[in-house]
């Protein structure tokens, strides 16, 4: 007589209804087996329930009992036997987050092929969001995050999707400090150009700003040259600029949701404290650092006061804020779009290039090219459903998603 198999894999599929899991487990309990692994998903009302159990003394009797249970539940069932040995897997594991608007099957197929070509295995896939972007979290084993990041960077560009690769560890959900650039990151547009409109030199300032963000000019030199053009603008123009600011979509959602979870926020800007301090107060942001415009007799002098917050200064601010909170740099997230954000992005545990210049996208840990700032939360492992549930508890009504 052949030896009994060491494990049985039982897979039930069919219309979801209450009692499927409990009925199946009750049948298994009568057989006295141990549950080794268990996973269940529901997709559009269809249930897939997989159970890996130790085989009983009488596998045939269990097979008959499970088949009877499945018939009573109007479910299909497959039972496979095998040895209890699990394939040896690499200790290296990663989360691969894929974002798209839309996310086409061809793009996902290309991404999964790349993962396979790196010698990695996809252990699990979780949907994080279906609107306004589609986002999936792939749990991958068998290849280092660095290898996967290299393999998938080219595919992301080819497919027009965003892909983030992060090590699987507790820090992913445990990051406690989020440091953001302001201009073209937290807000839509550049404050200095808005002020320049009051001085009649918006186009000239915009040209210099664009070159500086691409890394073609020294930031401090370019800032002082642009600010000099603002001499004579009344300080009251700063109030008008502030009232005209538009936050990027999802900014408030991200800040209020992560604040509930104990996250701390900082804004670090090459712009001006007269604007960023008010933004911080409005959004409940804990730290703010920016340049200070000199104002004398209610008029901008064309100078900045004190040390300029440049590329190195942004990274230094991140480290100082983290140290004040008792956090390591690995416990930080940095978000930015320009060349002066590069050191800050590199210093963070997760550096995100948000709708950034090409040189910044290629240097950052990951890039997000959709206009929704709250997609950053998907990189941290949060789902759209969790975010909306948190808002509902706070009495915030979320618009109903489109029917698909």
Descriptive labels:
404 residues, alpha/beta, Alpha-Beta Plaits, Rossmann fold, 3 domains, seven-stranded mixed beta sheet, four-stranded antiparallel beta sheet, 16 helices, 15 strands, 39% helix, elongated
Structure description:
The chain starts with 6 loop residues before the first strand and ends in an 11-residue tail after the last helix. The protein is 39% helix and 27% strand. By secondary structure, the chain is of the alpha/beta class. It is elongated. It folds into three domains: 7-82, ACT domain (Alpha-Beta Plaits), CATH 3.30.70; 93-168, 2-Layer Sandwich (Alpha-Beta Plaits); 178-389, HAD superfamily/HAD-like (Rossmann fold, 3-Layer(aba) Sandwich). A hairpin with a 4-residue loop joins β6 and β7 (134-141).
Describe the structure concisely for a colleague.
39% of the residues lie in helices and 27% in strands. It is built from 16 helices and 15 strands.
Shape: elongated
What is the count of structural domains? 3
Q: What is the overall number of helices?
A: 16
Q: Any idea what the CATH superfamily of the largest domain is called?
A: HAD superfamily/HAD-like
Rg calculated over all Cα atoms? 27 Å
Q: How would a textbook summarize the main sheet?
A: 7 strands, mixed
Query: What structural class is derived from the secondary structure elements?
Result: alpha/beta
Query: Unreliable runs, pLDDT <50, ≥5 residues?
Result: none
Kindly provide the name of the CATH class of the largest domain.
Alpha Beta
In spatial order, strands of the major sheet run 12-11-10-9-13-14-15
Tell me the CATH topology of the largest domain. Answer: Rossmann fold
User: Into which percentage range does the β-strand content fall?
Assistant: 25-35%
Q: What's the total number of strands?
A: 15
> Would you tell me the overall average pLDDT?
90
Portion of residues within helices: 25-40%
CATH architecture of the largest domain: 3-Layer(aba) Sandwich
The separation of the N and C termini measures: 54 Å
């Amino acid at each position: 007589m052949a030896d009994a198999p060491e494990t049985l894999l039982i897979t039930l599929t069919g219309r979801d209804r209450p009692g499927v899991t409990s009925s199946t487990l009750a049948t298994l309990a009568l057989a006295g087996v141990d549950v080794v692994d268990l996973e269940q998903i529901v997709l559009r009302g269809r249930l897939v329930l997989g159970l890996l159990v130790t085989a009983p003394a009488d596998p045939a009797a269990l097979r008959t009992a499970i088949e009877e249970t499945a018939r009573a539940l109007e479910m299909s069932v497959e039972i496979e036997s095998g040895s209890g040995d699990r394939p040896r897997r690499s200790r290296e594991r990663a989360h691969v987050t894929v974002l798209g608007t839309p996310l086409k099957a061809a793009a996902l197929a290309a991404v999964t092929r790349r993962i396979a070509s790196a010698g990695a295995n996809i252990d699990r896939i979780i949907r994080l969001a279906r609107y306004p972007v589609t986002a999936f979290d792939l749990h991958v084993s068998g290849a280092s995050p660095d290898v996967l990041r290299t393999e998938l960077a080219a595919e992301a560009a080819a497919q027009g999707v965003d892909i983030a690769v992060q090590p699987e560890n507790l820090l992913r959900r445990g990051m406690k400090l989020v440091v953001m650039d302001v201009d073209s990151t937290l807000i839509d547009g550049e404050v200095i150009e808005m002020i320049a409109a009051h001085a009649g030199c918006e186009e000239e300032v915009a040209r210099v700003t664009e070159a500086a963000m691409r890394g073609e000019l020294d930031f401090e030199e370019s800032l002082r040259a642009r600010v000099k053009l603002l001499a004579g603008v009344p300080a009251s123009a700063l109030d008008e600029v502030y009232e005209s600011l538009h936050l990027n979509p999802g900014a408030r959602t991200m800040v209020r949701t992560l604040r509930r979870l104990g996250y701390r926020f900082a804004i670090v800007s090459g712009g001006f404290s007269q604007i960023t301090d008010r933004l911080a107060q409005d959004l409940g942001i804990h730290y703010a650092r920016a340049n200070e415009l000199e104002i004398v007799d209610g008029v901008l002098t064309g100078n900045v006061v004190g040390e300029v917050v440049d590329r190195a200064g942004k990274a230094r601010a991140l480290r100082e804020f983290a140290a004040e909170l008792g956090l390591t740099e690995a416990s930080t997230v940095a978000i930015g779009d320009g060349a002066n954000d590069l050191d800050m992005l590199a210093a963070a545990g997760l550096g995100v290039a948000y709708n950034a210049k090409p040189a910044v996208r290629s240097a950052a840990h990951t890039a997000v090219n959709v206009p929704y700032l709250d997609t950053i939360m998907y990189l941290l492992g949060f789902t759209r459903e969790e975010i909306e549930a948190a808002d509902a508890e706070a009495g915030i009504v979320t618009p109903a998603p489109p029917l698909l």
